[in-house]
Amino acid sequence: MTNNYLFPNFLTDLTEYGAAEELWRKHWYDLLKHLGDLTEWDTPWLNTTLADGTPCRDGNPIFSAVSLSRRLGIRVIQLEPSGNTRELYFWMGTFGQGEAEAIEELVISCVLTKETLYDALDIMNQWLNTGEVVLSRVDGYLTFPLPPRHAKQRDYALVAC
Amino acid sequence: MAKHDHDQDNDEPLHRGRIQAQGGGTEKSEAWSQGKPPTEREMLGKCDQLEAKLTDREKADRQEPLARLRRFIREAAKGGGVKAPTSKSFLKRGSKNIRIDIEVIKGLACVPDSEDG
């Protein structure tokens, strides 16, 4: 199962960390290109360094983007491999609730495999288009170990997008 | 007269943020809004205050996320703190989004304590 993970040593290997960051960025830009929405978004949105410039490199977040005009943000947290290659959680919230400049955000927290990457992109795509996310689910809403048949359908759907 | 520890645009304190216990039906938080950045000690105090608001069950569920937040605060202080915008979530893996969040919305947080305390 370990072989299914992309950059499984990202927390200890600087090269893997950089490659994982780049992967998220690349797929995000591909998604924006698909949506024709390239100018709306800035990335990164959130600080990932300490005040003295030391990088955190803890995957929390590994990617973030913001649209200041739409007051929307996206944050992706990459989790260490755990044995569940479909482990993915997501939620919506508000950064700076009660502030004039509050940002509505989508947060995705997942291990990184080809499947969770596509699931994450699917979630982002749905959220950017409709502000909602609907997933086929078997074992609950947040972690969804889909049977292979469903996984394949999701793959095809995402290739199409 | 402009106050140096307040935002000149809206007269709000310059350093604002919150830590929150979220998920599984829980939504409890500890916020700060002050002229000086909260120090490591103050932030660890916020963690204690948030923990004190939780029921035994909520506390047990968030023991590990809270430990990771405290570790982050200590590490951040070694690097001079963290600047806004910063947002981190410490999730209890395998749970229904049980987690602890920290948001630094404006200014700085988790700065080192001064030597004279």
Set out the fold topology.
The complex is a heterodimer of chains A (161) and B (117).
Chain A lengths: L13 H22 L27 E5 L4 E7 L9 E8 L7 E8 L3 H17 L17 H13 L1
Parallel strand pairs in A: 2-4
Antiparallel strand pairs in A: 1-2, 3-4
Helix pairs in contact in A: 2-3
Chain B lengths: L14 E9 L2 E9 L5 H14 L2 H6 L1 H16 L3 E2 L2 E6 L7 E8 L1 E2 L8
Antiparallel strand pairs in B: 1-2, 1-5, 3-6, 4-5
Question: Keywords for this structure?
Answer:
heterodimer; A: 161 residues; four-stranded mixed sheet; disordered C terminus; B: alpha+beta; two-stranded antiparallel ribbon; 31% strand
Walk me through this protein's architecture:
- The complex is a heterodimer of chains A (161) and B (117).
- Chain A has 161 residues and is of the alpha+beta class.
- Chain A has helices at residues 14-35, 114-130, 148-160; strands at residues 63-67, 72-78, 88-95, 103-110.
- In chain A, strands 1-2-4-3 form a 4-stranded mixed β-sheet.
- In chain A, a hairpin with a 4-residue loop joins β1 (63-67) and β2.
- The radius of gyration of chain A is 16 Å and the shape is globular.
- Mean pLDDT of chain A is 84; it is low at 137-147 and 155-161.
- Chain B is α+β, with helices and mostly antiparallel strands.
- In chain B, 31% of the residues lie in helices and 31% in strands.
- Chain B contains 3 helices and 6 strands, in the order ββαααββββ.
- In chain B, strands 2-1-5-4 form a 4-stranded antiparallel β-sheet, covered by helices on one side. A two-stranded antiparallel sheet of chain B has the order 3-6.
- The N and C termini of chain B lie far apart (30 Å).
- The mean pLDDT of chain B is 92.
- Chain A binds chain B through residues 45-47, 49-54, 60-61, 64, 75, 77, 79, 82, 87, 89, 91, 93, 95-96, 99-100, 105, 107, 109, 140-143, and chain B through 10, 16, 22-23, 75-76, 78-91, 93-94, 96-97, 101, 103-106, 108, 111.
